Amino acid sequence: MITNNLILLHHMLLDYGLLYHNDRTYAFLIIVTVVMLLSCLQLIHIFVFFVYQVVFLFHVVKLLQIQQPLGRAIHLQEHLLD
What we know:
This protein is mainly alpha-helical.
């Protein structure tokens, strides 16, 4: 039942994607296709875990980028105090 609904949704979105050519539509179609395939294989929990890991790594990289200028400022301040 769920698989049939996902296949129907996939075909509807594919028809929409063929009518409107833009990057957001194609990205959404790829996401829906991947989710459909993973749910058919009953691996949706692995996909959710993967997305969680990507989001976590994104936040870590963002925090490191914020801390880098602070580290440089502290190093510069120590250098000026010497």
